[in-house]
Amino acid sequence: MTLMSESAPAKSGSNTNWLLLLLKARTFVALLLVLAFFSVMAPNFLSTANAILVSKHVAINAFLAIGMTFVIITGGIDLSVGSVVGLTSMVAGWLVLNGIDVGLGWSIQFNTFEIAAIVCLAGVFVGWINGILITRLNVAPFIATLGMLYVARGAALLFSGGRTFPNLNGNPEYGSDTFPLIGTGNFLGLPVMIWMLIAVALGAAYIASRTPLGRQIYATGGNERGAALSGVRVNRVKMFVYMFAGLMAAIVGLIIASQLRAAHPATGEFFELNAIAAAVLGGTSMSGGRGRIAGTIIGAFVIGILSDGLVMMGVSSFWQMVVKGLVIIAAVVIDQAQSKLQARVALAQEVALSK
Amino acid sequence: MNLAAKIDGTHPVGLTIRGATKVYPGTVALKDVDFDIRMGAVNVLVGENGAGKSTLMKVIAGVETLTGGEIKVDGRPIVFRTKDDAVANGIGIVFQELNLFPDMSVSENVFMAREPLRFGVDIDSASVEERTRVLMHRLEQDIDPNTTLGHLRIGQQQIVEIAKALAQDAKILILDEPTSALSAAEVEVLFRIIDELKAQGVGIVYISHRLEELIRVGDYITVLRDGQITGSRSMEGVDIPWIVQAMIGEKSKDFSQSLCHEFGREVFRAEDIALPKMGGGYMVDHVSLTVRAGEILGLYGLMGAGRSEFLECIMAQHPEARGHFFVDGEEMREKHVAGRIARGIALVPEDRKRDGLIQIMSVRENITLSSLVQFTTGFHLSLRKEAARAAEFIKRMTVKVASPDNPISSLSGGNQQKVVIGKALMTGPKVLLMDEPSRGIDIGAKAEIYHKMRNLAAEGIGIIFVTSDLEEVLALSDRIIVLADGRISGEFGRDANAAEVIAAATPASAKSKNKDLVS
Q: Do B400 and A346 touch (CB under 8 A)?
């Protein structure tokens, strides 16, 4: 997809255009390279079972990375998503095990859909608080979400006093026995969570490229003042992206609680960093205004395949970290080279025009 | 003041520029300019925006190098390759925008990046403080070197900037619009300091738009127009009409002639708009005005007169502003820019880069940003409709661009400005606000934009445009309103007199002080 849509402006002929095309498609090229490398080096890497396993790992990160991409495009950052994953999985665990105790000697129990809806609302609510801090109280996104990282993690621990909620099998009487299916069920041969990822990714890509909201997200990150003076309601846009990031975190929290049939308060530590890495690898600019959902998904796959492939090859986890770090840095270096080249090509076009 | 010295003509020439030419891609900023800086005197440099004053100053300060011509200091030819070369030759410059660090102390600011070291290791803060104290004493200012700079008033900060230049042993001091941000009392202090520096033999180059101030403080005057010197003489006998004549000359720019048409009904009215200033007073001081359909209203004034702020009030950028706006007779109460755009107001901001454009977006995305609603059904944005509309406006605004999907940053200034105007027009405005619409673009593009403005007015749009280009405001406006100190200080018809407009633009505070000196 990236390849097709971006190759259009490149004109045939000169080497620069070929180079530019190659640089633009770099994440895709990287994906093909890691795929080719591990199919040769790691036995069974290309088997269907393994492909589904890797996809499941990737999906967890991809959800968060999609939310993170929107946030980064507006020029912000959301460090709290990992903690929100932990918090929302605890909320899910609590709801499955205890329901809501209204303190009158009886409690309200929920079916799976209601639980999912409430958990999602909880994630959106945390995003809403982030948004309020950033737009109304003018706290820098880094600080606001750093604070929320601690608050949400602490809240997750307080839920159970630090203990795990075990045996989240649900109860057929309440209609919550389908809860484990969110993370483990299959539909038409693919895991439910992969279908969810496909739906979310298509939805997010649609928002980004085909709605005024998407255009305004890019404009806000490109030049906040300029966007505001053009009639973009910058604060609303920011509220949306943080709430969306919270929603993504809640989905991940649900999936993990359901997969493990247990909710542990430490779930999701450092997930935010993987999400940022996937977004950056996919070509999202940390200074805002630039990034694509498709790129982010590919970025998440590169990271996921890299770590799973290295595990299958038996490379030590210490080396895995080094390799991951190098890949991320290399991605940004290439990104800078591309921007420079692109600016030169566009400038040359304009000069040719004015002659 | 220095009458005796003036008559004797005893001011030695410290720096000479002969045949200076500076060519930028597409424009010639300086054409064969001769300029002398006399020591122990105030050398005034005046000209309209874009006349080449700042280019000339940048050349002297070593920021830019000349394409042709030579610079001599004390008779020796010299080439300034970098700023440091200029500093080494005793040239200090105080830019209009202060280059200071608000969170550092006064002494740290004065010695920024030139800190004296102890044994080449750590900063000798005792010496820094002492030398700053001496400088402040020389400038007769009671400013403690340890004060945090941000706590000082703007006028005092400007004095710190002067001290910074003097700390580098500046023998030639360039002051670019030093009084634009100062109160009347601070201007007096500055003038006293200038007198003292003159007495110490410092050669001062003084750039300002406030003509009465120039006549008061200057010893020699040089007028630039379109990169050429149009007048250079001793200040004796110089009056405002002479300066204006030299500044504007005969009609040089290509202004489209007014397309004769009747004005329609009133489309826009502002009533009693007041924007409080930090620390008391008003940026916009109870301004009321009206615009009729098809009318071009020129808003003229000096920097800090509150012109841009007034436009920003209309565009809902200052929630603390008071007053009422009416569009087509109905009050505009919307609190958001989006709401005001929907009511038929559109703004072309002054700073294209900062406020007008999203640099990393394409031409198409920029031009349609304010009008996305037009291509949206539900929440679906039709890219096809958008592309068609963008192409239509690119053609209508005659933007020269290879592809609408090229980044806006690859365009020339004039074409970028056309995109900004196109963006405003796409919203279908009844009232178009333009803040310095011709700033930073070449003459050809200027003429095109003037022509566009005429056409838009003829189509029945009411235009309010802000400018500090006197020639522009005189030639383009159907009516001129002059602002000074946030207040309306004059209103003129189509046959306005240049000198009267300038007189009205001079702040009342400065005027009363200067009256006895000028007359």
A: no
